[in-house]
Amino acid sequence: MSNQMSTTSALRRLQGIFAEHQQIAAINQPITTCSKPTNRSAQAIVDSFKKSSECPQFRRNRFHYETAVRQLTEAKHFSGIIDIIEHQKNYPDIRNEYFVVRLILLYGKVKMDHRARNLFDEMPQLNCPRTVFSFNALLEAYLKSEKYHKIGDLFRELPSKLSIEPDLVSYNTAIKAMCKASWLDSAVYLMDEIESRGIKPNIVTCNTLLNAFYENRRFSEADNLWDMMEKKNIIPNLCSFNIKLTSLVIANEVSKANQFFDEIVNKGFKPDAFSYNTMIKMGITQGNLEEVKMWYEKMLQNDCLPDHKPFTMLVTFACSSKDFDFALRLCKKAMKSHKAICNRIMQRVVDGLVEHSKIENAKELVKLAESCGSFRYELSLPSHN
């Protein structure tokens, strides 16, 4: 009985935290509207998906659903998204909570929080159990929809009504929503609240707050959180260190960033692509080409590879620095690794090579681009004397 009263009390306080901000947050909320199909190809995706859904093996593959929703979003065919998700109610999988959770999260991805809520409410009629798992999915859908203030309403209304006990994932989602809404003091308060209920924060909780502290330049509170993590034996992960590394780079603390990178390695962590990209960005901001090249080489030596955006950033910087040999190496590596660089920037490399009398290199790049099977490039060799 006392535990139930404690839970009710905590949920009321949580709802109160959100309610304090709700009036302001209700202003200028983004509205997602559904539009009619813009072309036949979008409707063809819907028709094909619904037909394929008849196959149980197809329905088990989450990737099919995510791809279709992404394509329909790009086509602004939002009614088609609703159509393919609602169509899933025709199959026995709809009685499986894991399957319904996938559908709720898909609605969240396209900011259709109201649709996610309707599906959650319909679960009993669909003979599907509702547990804290689907409750957390609903919270995540509202988080993805950027309806942060409504998460407090969900906490107030649903747990007691449905006899659902929120867990650490529930509270972590609420804390993340508060951080996204810049209600950082409330997020800290909530962490203290759940801890008083015997729910121990984990590394997800701490990383969410660390990121918010650094983004808001509240460095002393970030330091205090690191101390708290050590005292409570919450072991930081690479993400924790990357968050701090990013803050040092943003603050232009070059020396401290370099020292902290070494500290990450000395603690036994293997820096990932994000770590190296952060250091490369610092070199670019400093205009230090040799530093950028050093970090890029270290990245490759440690079996990491830039994605298409960092590759684009690197090639652009190499061109600006008039190092077209480096730009050529980057382009060749990107194509070999199936990472896209936009045609305009690739053409800039070709032009730069020609301008610096590296005609054969320019021809090589044009030929490689023509034979690239992953992306279609249309490069031309400029006239030269």
Automatic annotation (TrEMBL):
The residues bearing each PPR repeat, given as ranges, are 167-201, 202-236, 237-271, 272-306
Stored InterPro entries: PPR_rpt, TPR-like_helical_dom_sf
Pfam families registered for this protein in UniProt: PPR_2 (PF13041), PPR_3 (PF13812)
RNA-binding as a keyword?
Answer: no
A cellular component term from Gene Ontology for this protein is:
chloroplast
Source domain of life: Eukaryota
Keywords from the UniProt entry: Repeat
Query: Which GO BP terms apply?
Result: chloroplast-nucleus signaling pathway; mitochondria-nucleus signaling pathway
Report the SUPFAM superfamilies cross-referenced here: TPR-like
Q: Which NCBIfam families match?
A: PPR (TIGR00756)
Family to which the UniProt record says this protein belongs? Belongs to the PPR family. P subfamily.
Q: What is this protein called?
A: Pentatricopeptide repeat-containing protein, mitochondrial
What organism does this protein naturally occur in? Capsicum baccatum
Record lineage: Eukaryota, Viridiplantae, Streptophyta, Embryophyta, Tracheophyta
